[in-house]
Write a structure and sequence with these properties.
The protein is α+β, with helices and mostly antiparallel strands. The protein has three domains: about 50 residues, no CATH class; about 30 residues, no CATH class; about 55 residues, no CATH class. Helices cover about 45% and strands about 10% of the residues. Strands 2-1-3-4 form a four-stranded antiparallel sheet, sandwiched between helices. The two termini are about 15 Å apart. Pfam families: DUF2239 (PF09998). This is DUF2239 family protein. It comes from Parasphingorhabdus cellanae.
């Protein structure tokens, strides 16, 4: 499940699902500038925007029948033995491939993915802060101790979120 984290300037507001973050943001008092509230995808570290208008304005009524699940047809090239194995799995090739992808996603992200997510997050929120460039070098050197030292004067919320992205608990 994808989670998101919202910040008000450099202060952590909430972490949760899309609907939880939207509910949190809707409950906030009006802000002077929309740029004071930033939301990040915790998987990629990219900044994202949510449409906070009332759901009746933004959502079409539910249609009958099977929902479109965002399925995209793409080509997969496999050897005959791979197709034979997939054909023997319960649910067929597509269901098996989806299960395998989800299982791989749940086993955790590799080190580089976490570093990249932290980099994307920090570039938006802390790109002009002191020691930013050196902290990014420490991040990609996988030197957590140096990263923490260089980011010590930053907002604790920002520093802790970046550490959580780059060095997730096992």
């Amino acid at each position: 499940m994808t989670t998101y984290t919202a910040f008000s300037e450099a202060n952590w507001l909430a972490t949760g699902t899309r609907s939880e973050i939207i509910d949190t943001l809707r409950a906030l008092p009006e802000v002077k500038r929309s740029s004071d509230i930033l939301v990040f995808d915790d998987e990629t570290g990219n900044q994202i925007d949510f449409d906070l208008r009332a759901t009746s304005e933004t959502e079409a009524p539910a249609k009958r029948g099977r929902p479109k699940l965002g399925v995209v047809s793409k080509e997969v090239t496999l050897l005959p033995r791979h197709w034979d194995w997939l054909a023997k799995q319960s649910g067929g090739a597509s269901a098996t491939l989806r299960r395998l992808v989800e299982q791989a996603r749940k086993t955790g992200t590799d080190k580089r993915t976490g570093q990249d997510a932290a980099y994307h997050f920090l570039t938006v929120i802390a790109g002009d802060w002191p020691q930013f460039e050196e902290a990014i070098r420490a991040l990609y050197a996988d030197d957590r101790e140096r990263f923490e030292l260089l980011s010590k004067q930053w907002s604790a919320s920002v520093r802790d979120h970046a550490i959580g992205l780059a060095w997730p608990k096992s």
